[in-house]
Amino acid sequence: MATASNIETERKFDADESTPLPDLESIEGVGRVGEPAVHHLEAVYFDTSRLALAARGITLRRRTGGTDAGWHLKLPHSPGNRTEVQAPLGSVDSIPDELLERVLAYTRGRPLAPVATLNTERTSFALYGDDGGRLADFVDDRVRALVTIDGPRESRWREWELELAAKDGQDDALLEALAGQLADAGAVPSKRASKLATALGDSWPPPRKAAGHSSSGKAPAVTPVLEYLESQIADLLLQDAHVRQDRDDAVHQMRSLIRRIRSVLHTYRKLFDPAAVEGLESELKSLAETLGRYRDAEVLHERLRASLDELPAKLVLGPLHDELDQRMQVRLDTALSAIRERLDSARYYKLLEQLEEFTQAPPTILKGSRPAGKTTAKLVNKAAQRLGKRHDAAVGAAVGPQRDKAFHEVRKAAKKLRFAAAAVGSVHGKRAGRIEDAAHKVQSILGEHQDSAMAREELLKLGSASDVGNAAFTYGVLHAQERSAADATELQYLQSGKKARKLRLKP
What is the C-alpha separation between 11 and 162, in angstroms, rounded? Predict the structure, then answer.
């Protein structure tokens, strides 16, 4: 099993072979420098033939020697920080499954193979504070690299690293202060992304980034939209591993990201080539439905189980708790199997490729090049108008399944409005934030209404089954409770949902 991940916070410096070591004891805050420890490290780095991991700032290696021999996977976390996950040493011919699962969204079925082997002579010094606590580690590395991709070649260099010793509650200010003092002493901050980047040299792939950078009102309308989509796609790729590892709430989070991406594509579809957007929307909808079968069963199970638990024992006629658990577990297992099959499919990997290609080479049309302020305001306001129309249809619908469906349409319109506003928050600031918050409130209220509608539909099926027996009474009680809960959420929505329908952006 992989160990718990931690955040690695470090700074790198370039050093020539003849550069003397800095006077570590003179650094402010360092009370004592530990005796030097020398290790020989060998690290074999793995990637696809297209360097899919390197392109995203990810490194996967198997390292021997030193105090942390084993498999190391490093994923970007924030500027200057990376999440590191480790697994036992094992064999160089067998990458641990728990690490493979974390990178499948990036490798997309392509095999991983060694691309470089680095041998490092490391001399490390522990830096202690005046109170005796370990502050950081300074390492002096002399590296010899053999690259096997794009033709074999060797290189050598020297570099220094400064890494915080603490793994929890890291103090970035402390690291910056230490790094700054090293720089003042003559050390040169490195421009290298990693040792692997230095070894690969010109073979190192450019980072995968969206097209836009500026998000002012005068920037092209597609710019804030693309930046928002890129951030959501990056989160989706990270969430992929959580689903594969069966983490709590992972399916829900992944489904939410997919819906958010699809919603923004739909709202701003007129800024792009229609065919490109329609194709992505269709695939995202299909994937969300696959995830939704599991999530809907999960929510329904939790809701009905809680309702049964709250009923007085004398009103629960039969072993309904066990029957519910068994019935819902079958649904969950079936749905989860479908998710795993989908996530391992060429169809899914193709969708991920297309989403990234959309942000890197967007199919922008003329309207997408117009100023973001006015153009995006019109589209957000159109989404608000659509919410108003859905509201009018819902309040005029007859009580029953038709009304439930109409309020569900209101909820979906609120979600579209929420994400439309969120995507252009960098352009419209607080106004977009107020719309986003108001729409989110509507979405939350009517989410409870939709959960109740699904529960009532299930309870009606259970209560009318031919072999239900006395349990029909219990299901009838629960159905009545759900009807009351739905009425309460409708009233809550009617009292507090007006703001989302009335707010507008100004160009």
Answer: 5
Q: Positive or negative CA dihedral for 155, 156, 157, 158?
A: positive
pLDDT tens for 132-151 read 899 889 999 999 999 999 88
Instruction: Give dist(CA 154, CA 148) in Å, integer.
Output: 9
pLDDT tens-digit map of 189-225: 887 778 999 999 989 988 765 444 556 668 999 999 9
Record the pTM: 0.88
Residue 120 pairs in a beta bridge with 41, 143
Mean per-residue pLDDT, 10-26: 85
The H-assigned helical ranges of 363-470 are 372-395, 401-423, 425-463
Alpha-carbon dihedral sign for residues 422, 428, 431, 433: positive
Cβ pair 443, 411 in contact under 8 A:
yes
Mean residue pLDDT of the chain comes to 91
Sequence-distant (≥ 6) Cβ neighbours of residue 476 within 8 angstroms:
459, 463
Based on its alpha-carbon atoms, the radius of gyration of the chain, rounded to whole angstroms, reads: 28
Max distance between CA atoms of the chain, in angstroms, equals 88
Token duo for residue 503: 């707010």
Our CA angle for 41, 44, 49, nearest 5°, is 160
- Integer CA distances (angstroms), 154 to 120, 138, 145, 161, 291, in order: 13, 26, 5, 22, 47
Q: Which two tokens stand for residue 279?
A: 């194709």
What whole-number percentage of the chain has pLDDT above 90?
Answer: 76
Cα atoms in the Cβ-side hemisphere of radius 13 Å centred on 438: 20
Nearest to 106 by CA among 174, 42, 175, 55: 55
For 168, counting Cβ atoms within 10 Å of its Cβ (0-12 exposed, 13-18 middle, 19+ buried), the class is exposed
Residue 475 neighbours by CB under 8 Å, 6+ apart: 459, 460, 462, 463, 468
How far is the C-alpha of 287 from the C-alpha of 292, rounded, in Å?
8
Least confident of 124-128, 166-170, 277-281, 343-347: 166-170
